[in-house]
Design goal:
Blueprint (H helix, E strand, L loop, with lengths): L6 H9 L11 H10 L5 H4 L6 H13 L5 H9 L5 H11 L1 H16 L9 H13 L4 H10 L12 H4 L5 H13 L19 H8 L5 E4 L8 E4 L5 E3 L10 E3 L20 E3 L8 E2 L4 H8 L5 H16 L19 H13 L4 H9 L27 E2 L2 H11 L2 H7 L7 H19 L14 H9 L1 H7 L6 H6 L4 H12 L6 H11 L5 H13 L2 H4 E2 L1
Antiparallel strand pairs: 1-2, 3-4, 5-6, 7-8
């Protein structure tokens, strides 16, 4: 049996084993049970399991951010081992490509595609990728992001979250609450939130109080600036709706938690290193040092809910609480018991993101088809069908590179023993223009998907995409031009671009398009270009 497995899956069997969890009720099963409680007769209305081709494309894009090769698709579709989906999931999660995918996803989440200011992109990417490759717990990662001052070159990349925001009090407070606590407190800066009763002005300044004494040393304009801190200073605020403008203050605290009081400082001993010209001050007690631990605590319900919700959104394209940064009573989770369960299990498993992703993608909920038979599609928060998710800019860029065979051509030219990182280094330059064209506005959180005219023109008429399609040794057009049989050409095109075999009608269309033509290159170029511009290619489904 093992001799018939694709090579990559044999490695999984040999190294990792393939046996499903022997737990009496795996989390994946509990996910399915709790999802089903949201709809009467759920089994009757839910979509059937996705086909192998649909599942293969979906899981490869979700877990690696890359399309599979045509050869890998043929091997997976031909494999008859019942456990092949579970084996594939394990293989993808243990591959270097998963760490790369997490790096790309969390880079966008954490930095909102900001332009590099004080920490170079390469160092930051390496920090994120190596963190996920090593299985670093998510709470540890967040503590590092919120507690690193940037002074040590070895750990400076972790300070990018704060340094590249210039430690701006308003921006940092907003993004800590939004990204890590699931509460966008920006509208609670000048007063209690006008629409969400639970979002208080004191919550905004409670977070800011952790770093209100911190500043960039020697100054914010210095590209090598680090975070320094004074020994005193309080945040003060007043509601713009208060006619008396009563000034209030707060000690550091996370949302409604108890404030963290400063220890009483002995007079004259407020500093380990006193302020002086050309000297970075170091206080005896650091409020800033408390920030990471206070936010990323397993006891912090908001943090673990948001972490679990963000992993769910990573997989499904939307959160159980949606939008992700509006967790409050007026916007409850679509499945409250499920979100509570995911949050508790994630914390119990020491914030192991890979573990939670594995359980989610093993579920029947994840593996359903994206097709439906009703006249109107079901509500997306019921999970009766797999969601149609637009590929994010990195996924889309690398999908184009793989579909056109550009990645294949580069891969074939690498020396024996080349790594995933070697391949990425060679292709990332070709991905960059696509990522730039489809990325959100730098510094702004990504909004709902919408395709702009410029993006449409980039694909349909842009010279960059045309250049990737053009015949090159080992790429898709080169392979297709060498196939005399139109049926084989159709098979190669559809497996490479859509990760599925063509239908009978599609094969007939390709055959007819090639009948009697003298310039097969021109015809096939237009066909591939048209395929890349379809919704089937643009979305994960």
């Amino acid at each position: 049996m093992l001799s018939r497995l694709p090579h990559a899956l044999v490695a999984v069997v040999a190294v990792c084993g393939i046996s499903p969890s022997v737990a009496q009720e795996p989390l994946s099963d509990r996910i399915d049970r709790l999802i089903a409680t949201g709809v009467p007769d759920y089994a009757k209305h839910a979509a059937p399991p996705a086909s192998d081709a649909e599942f293969f494309r979906r899981v490869c894009l979700d877990l690696t951010g890359r399309l599979p090769t045509a050869a890998a698709t043929r091997a997976f579709l031909a494999e008859t081992t019942p456990a092949k989906r579970l084996m594939l999931i394990d293989h993808l999660l243990e591959s270097p490509a998963f760490a790369r995918r997490m790096q790309e996803y969390f880079d966008a989440v954490l930095m909102d595609r900001r332009r590099d200011v004080k920490v170079p992109r390469a160092a930051w990417a390496d920090y994120l990728r190596s963190s996920f490759a090593a299985g670093k717990p998510y709470d540890q990662l967040v503590r590092e992001l919120l507690s690193t001052d940037g002074a040590d070159p070895k750990t400076r990349p972790a300070a990018k979250f704060l340094l590249d925001r210039d430690l701006d009090p308003t921006v940092v407070t907003r993004d800590i609450s939004r990204v890590f606590l699931g509460r966008n407190l920006q509208c609670a800066q000048c007063h209690d939130h006008p629409l969400v009763e639970e979002y208080k002005q004191a919550h905004f300044y409670g977070i800011q109080a952790f770093f209100n004494r911190a500043f960039l040393y020697p100054n914010a304009q210095d590209a090598n600036a680090v975070i320094a801190e004074k020994a005193d200073g309080e945040v003060t605020f007043a509601s713009v709706f208060d006619p008396k403008k009563v000034s209030m203050t707060t000690a550091p605290k996370v949302l409604a938690w108890q404030p963290i009081s400063d220890p009483k400082a002995e007079k004259g001993k407020e500093y380990k290193v006193a302020p002086a010209k050309g000297v970075k001050p170091v206080p005896a007690y650091s409020r800033f040092a408390q920030l990471g631990a206070a936010v990323a605590s397993a006891d912090n319900v908001a943090f673990r809910r948001t972490a679990a919700n963000r992993v769910w959104a990573f997989v499904f394209g939307r959160g159980l609480v949606h939008p992700l940064d509006y967790d409050h009573e007026g916007n409850p989770a679509s499945h409250p018991a499920l979100l509570d369960l995911l949050a508790e299990e994630l914390a119990a498993h020491k914030f192991d993101v890979k573990w939670l992703v594995r359980e989610i993608v093993r579920s029947e909920t994840y593996q359903r088809s994206s097709g439906w038979t009703a006249e109107t599609p079901p509500e997306p928060d019921r999970y009766l069908v797999a969601p149609l998710k637009p590929l994010d800019p990195e996924q889309f860029a690398h999908a184009i590179l793989q579909a056109t065979g550009h990645t294949d051509a580069i891969r074939s030219g690498l020396p024996k023993g080349a790594t995933e990182n070697d391949l990425h280094t060679k292709v990332v330059g070709s991905a960059a223009p696509i990522v730039a064209a489809f990325g959100s506005v730098p510094g702004e959180p990504a909004g709902e998907f919408s395709s702009t005219l410029g993006q449409t023109l980039f694909v349909k008429h842009g010279g960059h995409v045309r250049g990737l399609i053009a015949p090159r040794a080992g790429n898709l057009l080169d392979r297709a031009l060498k196939l005399p049989d139109p049926t084989a050409v159709a098979d190669e095109l559809y497996l490479s671009v859509f990760t599925r075999p063509p239908t009978t009608e599609e094969t007939a269309e390709i055959t007819e398009a090639l009948r009697g033509v003298t310039d097969r290159t021109a015809v096939l170029t237009e066909i591939v270009w048209a395929m890349l511009a379809t919704a089937e290619f643009r979305f994960n489904h």
